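Q: Here's a chain of 521 amino acids. Please give me its 3D structure as tokens.
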Amino acid sequence: MTTAAQAGTGRTVTTDIPARLDRLPWSRWHWTIVIGLGTVWILDGLEVTVVGNIASRLSEPGSGLPITSGEVTGLAAALYVAGACSGALFWGRLTDKWGRKKLFMITLAVYLGATALTAIAFDTWWFFLFRFLTGFGIGGEYAAINSAIDELIPKEYRGRVDLMINGSFWLGAVFGSLLSIVALDTDIFAANVGWRLTFALGAVLALVILLVRRHVPESPRWLLIHGRDDEAERIVSSIERRVEQENGEPLPRPDGEITIHQRRSVSFLEIGRTVFSDYRRRAVLGFSLFIGQAFLYNAITFGFGAILTTFFDVPSGSTGYYFAVIALGNFFGPLLLGKLFDTVGRRVMISGTYLLSGLFLFGTAWLFDQGSLSASTLTACWCAVLFFASAGASSAYLTVSEVFPMETRAMSIAFFYAIGTAAGGISGPLLFADLTGTGKVADTVLAFQIGATLMCLAGLAAAILAVRAERRSLEDIATPLTAAADQTGQTSPTGRDKGDGAYASGSGSGSGSAGSRTATT
């Protein structure tokens, strides 16, 4: 029996476990994965939206906190972003090294504790500290959760599930917008209580999710590579029995096996060389997608309230309703378009959603410049833009989580997430704050045009570089670094991505069979 202590001892394992996971039909068990892991994006959307909406209340006398509105939306927001970026990189490395489950439990616990302590903030420095730590936990969630989801969800459904989960951020944004309206109503809650309850609610939701996550298993793919193939076999066999009982019929035979050399860990240098040398085209694609969507969202949403109040005389207390409407547009994009990423294909849908959102934003900028829009019609235009942009932005997370080898997956997600978050949360506001804050139509139009241009360029990059990953096993999209040499097909010349095909052709075993064979080398 292989144990964790025996990991990395040079054993060679031939297994059909990845193929067995990929051939599973959709079941109630998969819904437990979606609920247990995917709901964290709702918390992130809630956090980001609530802070923006409570800024004015926190700065008022009697709030219980000596802070200005600018400090809430400026320094506190920057610290949250800095925490998310650093947390993604810190926890991402540990996710590849220690496992998916251990980290998605730890990072959620960090978020839970930090947001609960934010609710009892008694001074400005306390509020800043725990905003940073809240982001630190959320940033780690992205790497751990995306890794686990992609490695547990069958290949036929991976695209739509990943998009739907990432798009659920905007459900949190809708909830945060509406919650802030109620929580900040001084007829219901005292000025120094309502804003605290919004953070406390986030902690309560996190606790519920933490309890659900106890039932989510470790990724069998990760266990295989780290010498725990007996544990991986038990987990997969248990899942197969549950799915067979639910469907009332035997599962189809899995197709293909893979042989790997187990090892304890992969060095940071090897991860960097793999992502930025062996897979440099895919790295360029990841950069393009993340930077494009980051700037588009800042072009539209940064200064959103200021645009409505400055150009359309919308009362500041009513901007939350408009934001809730465009947040719904963001949510329905991935929900309704997600299936097409698995059927029509990644290249067409990624490039199409980026290009359409960019072109629609160019059209919105032209209408805004002509004075043809009202607050309602501008919001409708943004809904159309973000319907496509949200699907595209979610596909950026899907892309970087499935096109790099498994041993680098969490770190790759963390790196590109950090790049996108930094661009969107630091350089984006520095650029767009000046443009949207001048009160000049031409400057706001320019902000829209910059976001639209970068989105279109990212769409063109996807049309050329996107990987045809739909309905393919992760091991076929990017050969694991631990795969045996005679299983990996061809390696590519310098400057081009490595070839596909980690699976050996031939037989697989039926459901319930011993899915792994080991040979000591």
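Q: Can you summarize the key feature?
A: The longest helix spans residues 69-98.
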